[in-house]
Amino acid sequence: MKKVQDYYFKKAKQENYPARSIYKLEEAQQKHHFMKPGDKVLDLGCHPGSWSLYAAKIVGAGGVVVGVDLQKSNIAAAAGAARIEFIRLDIFDAGFISLLADSLPFQVVISDLAPKTSGNKFTDHLKSIELSRRALAIACRSLCRGGHFYCKVFQGEDFPDFVNEVRQSFSKTKIVKPKSSRVESREVFVLGLEFRGR
Ligand SMILES: C[S@@+](CC[C@H](N)C(=O)[O-])C[C@H]1O[C@@H](n2cnc3c(N)ncnc32)[C@H](O)[C@@H]1O
């Protein structure tokens, strides 16, 4: 398994991405095509910026990517890619949606939000579910009708409830376990396609 991780680490370095997590988004995008040229994408938990860079490449110069994280990312999009605006902010900030008001609505919300892991699977699962529920609430406030949501979650006992909550707001829901995600890791990604609207 270490070999697989080294493979993605090296690949990310060669392709100038700051983190190998890029491939957890790329694999889903290549299969489900939920980001399109010209889209506006909101990237929650964006630091150090691999997902934002990849999304900027997919949506191209006519699109926009807004990346939000507790930490400030300082990377520039490649030539021909969308402009990326990085915002340093806690997603639980009460003024979160109003701060994004000028960019609304988004066609896609992606979330790779992760808590600081404690090593206790149950606690880490609960923290991850809390982040994922907040990401879903933000998506439901900021997506246009027909928009899409792709979100990382650490599996555990509340996971089926979370998937049902996504199902209520999106016409199609899929659970994605990318090859680049370690088999022993409890992380999976929930993809909500075609937002039903508010
Ligand atoms: C796995 S990293 C994201 C990697 C990123 N997708 C990439 O490809 O470069 C998870 C991020 O979630 C962020 N995060 C966790 N809790 C947050 C919160 N409450 N508000 C904003 N960002 C948060 C962390 O700071 C961390 O940078």
Describe the structure.
This protein is α/β, with parallel strands linked by helices. The chain has a single domain (2-195), classed as 3-Layer(aba) Sandwich (Rossmann fold), CATH 3.40.50.150. 36% of the residues lie in helices and 26% in strands. The protein contains six helices and seven strands; from the N terminus they run H-H-E-H-E-E-H-E-H-E-H-E-E. A seven-stranded mixed beta sheet has the order 3-2-1-4-5-7-6, with helices on both faces. Helix 3 (50-59) links the parallel strand 1 (40-44) and strand 2 (64-69). Helix 5 packs parallel to helix 6. The protein is globular. The model has no long low-confidence stretch (mean pLDDT 95). The site of S-adenosylmethionine has 22 residues, from helix 3 and strand 2.
What's this entry about, in short?
The protein is of the alpha/beta class. The chain has helices at 2-14, 22-32, 50-59, 96-99, 121-142, 159-169, and strands at residues 40-44, 64-69, 83-88, 106-111, 143-154, 170-176, 187-195.
Any chance you could write out the topology, listing elements then pairs?
Blueprint: H1 2-14, H2 22-32, E1 40-44, H3 50-59, E2 64-69, E3 83-88, H4 96-99, E4 106-111, H5 121-142, E5 143-154, H6 159-169, E6 170-176, E7 187-195
Parallel strand pairs: 1-2, 1-4, 2-3, 4-5
Antiparallel strand pairs: 5-7, 6-7
The structure holds S-adenosylmethionine.
